[in-house]
## 1
Amino acid sequence: MKLPTQVDVLIVGGGPVGGALALSLANSQLSVAVLEARLQPGEDARALAIAHASQQTLVALDVWPSAAATAIHSVHVSQQGGFGRVRLRAADLDLPVLGYVLPYVALAKTIHAHLQAASGARLHYLTGCRAIRLQTLDGYAVVNVEGDGQTALMTARLVVLAEGGQLLAEAGIGQDQYDYEQRAITAEVRTDKPHGGVAFERFATDGPIAMLPKDDGYAMVWTRPKDDPLDAANLDEVGFLRELQARLGDRVGRLNHAGPRAVFPLRLKWASSHQARRVAVVGNAAQTLHPVAGQGFNLGLRDALTLARVIHSVPTAQLGQATMLARYADLRKVDSLTTIGVTDGLIRLFGNGAPLLRHFRAAGFLAMDNFKPLRRGFAQRMVFGSR
């Protein structure tokens, strides 16, 4: 295992967020290393909701896999057992699209290939390597790296954690979490009606359902209770489609196919800070969100872009210094807290089945749908974050 002994920036985690950060720094004069535990991206059935602003960033980095993307022109939001609905449209923001649905693996493989191609004298893409220990000192950080059955030491002015685990604790950053006591069932489903670029968010009485247009069908995310009385994940295809249809109604057409299902536990996690001595935190290391609003990747990418701008704005000697890190953390505070609050608030608001709240939600739908500034403001928040 041949590793550089010292770099300016060491990024732990070469997934889409860590990889985007590395590529954002690739044309600078900085020496950058990326540690990725996997040799190459694995097969992953998840689909990402990519906001228009995030897509523009990925295009600028030349890592947008356009052939794999499906455009979202509008989002239809409704609740089961209550009147009213909201339709968010790209035209409300004078945009061509609100966003895209993209297979996670398509983006991961594209970024992987670009990191490999860019790897050289100043950018070191180290696959099959993982950080097993982190020590931070006043002037630099020390990371123990394991790979090929060997261990080695690397030092860096700045360590960026795109994946957390024990390294967060070693950096002195706490992590809070809330278990929603829920599971997400994901699958690709098809109907007899073209989706027309419309995404559906249906707040069913026993858990929200997202139907994201993907190719000629939908990428479905169905939130179920942890102890699911329906056992939806294990129903046969006919039973699964019947139960899903009962909650969606006919707005997506008649469901006629469901692919293999995967199940994921749902927890909200957030780091107590975006920074510590010689350490910055981005992406999943900073926060992991409920998928209800499709904001997780977009928020993580904004972390990476903000950090890249801060890094570019300071002399190399100031990388990782307290003033630089405090500036980064301050720039991310509002966007992070607001997005976490909105996502968590939606789950709590629609998870309460009280009749009075159902009527309150319906009134809110009607107000937003008929008052363009309110609708526009919410859509802008979802597409661009808090700026």
Note: The chain has two domains: 6-49+105-176+268-344, 50-101+178-266+353-384.
## 2
Amino acid sequence: MKHIVELLSIRSNFVFLIIFNSLFISDFYTVLLFNKKIKDNNDLKDLFEIISELESMLSFANLGIDNENYCIPEISDNISFNDLYHPLIENPISNSLDIKEGIILTGSNMSGKTTFLRTLGIAEILFKASSIVPATKFLSPKLDIYTSLRANDMLDEGISTFYAEILRMKKINEAIKKGPCLVLIDEIFKGTNLNERLEASFKIIEKLNNYNAYFIISTHDEKITEAKDIVNYHFNEYYKDDKIYFDYKIKEGKSETTNAMYLLKMADII
């Protein structure tokens, strides 16, 4: 290790660096020495693993420094949380919920559905990583997490938006057969027509229920709220002085409001 340190020290001298690299290819030799040292020394590998784990722990600790409210999550039979919020949003709105069965999440555009799904996904990942969680309470079983949040077309591979969604659903289908999962799906089957979207959505919901997966599916299609063995939650907007506002708070029941036409008018399109 002493030779490696000496060679690295030489690099700080520009003149020596040019001479040694030109005549002896010192950088190449340093890399070879370093790789050999790693192979021959298990203690060095252990040291790197310890350093990487410490860096992970420091990153988790930053959550407590950067965010005022957080908690130590606990293992439970169901998912339950109080005042959960997205740790990367300035002045975030928190939400509380108990999840015991599948949820269909409706709401108008920009009301907070996608952000809520991402927030829960982040919290579950932090929980699995033994980190603190941005909430005042967070309980959950140990779950694998599978999502379909940004399934878009991939032109270079000849894959349409709908087929990209199918590939995501295939992974989810394989995963729920192996063990407990949390499944988060945003705008289910948005890449196909209404009739097939409804039929396919009901099939997916039925399968998720058969394997007792925890799931939240967001949609704009009111018919999907009529699926069996689910509960409905929603986000909504309100209007004041002809302006639109959102409170970003999740509520029981299905959405009764829409805002697409208002947003088109606000953008001076219609």
Note: The CA atoms of residues 67 and 87 lie 7 Å apart.
